[in-house]
Amino acid sequence: MMGAYYGTLDAMHQWMVSKGVDPKAASTYVGAQMHSIALDGKQAGDSGFEHLIAEQTPGRCKGNEAREQHRALANPTHVRMHT
């Protein structure tokens, strides 16, 4: 799980650098952004995470994304990058 998480951070960082962002600034931004997201998750309490998903995916079919994530967790070789 942590490898996939850090891989996501690295992909975000590399993308930003490829668009001309200074590597240090990209690292700082990505780290701060992911910290903020993790803090929201930590504060979810006993209600789970559905409300956080709904906040971020209004009008979208969150079920498909959730199923894809569950498949990826169950089978790490079944990871697909969404662009």
Structural class: mainly alpha
List low-pLDDT spans: 78-83
Name the beta content range.
under 5%
Order of helices and strands: HHHH
- Mean pLDDT across every amino acid position: 80
Number of strand elements = 0
Q: Give the overall shape, derived from the CA principal axes.
A: globular
Q: How would a crystallographer describe the biggest sheet?
A: none
Radius of gyration computed on alpha carbons? 15 Å
How many domains make up the coordinates?
2
Number of helices: 4
- Helical residue percent band: 55-70%
- The end-to-end distance, rounded to whole angstroms, is 21 Å
Task: Explain how this protein is built.
The protein has helices at residues 2-18, 23-42, 50-56, 62-74. It has 83 residues and is mostly helical. It folds into two domains: 1-43, no CATH class; 46-83, no CATH class. Helix 1 (2-18) packs antiparallel against helix 2. Residues 78-83 have low confidence and may be disordered.
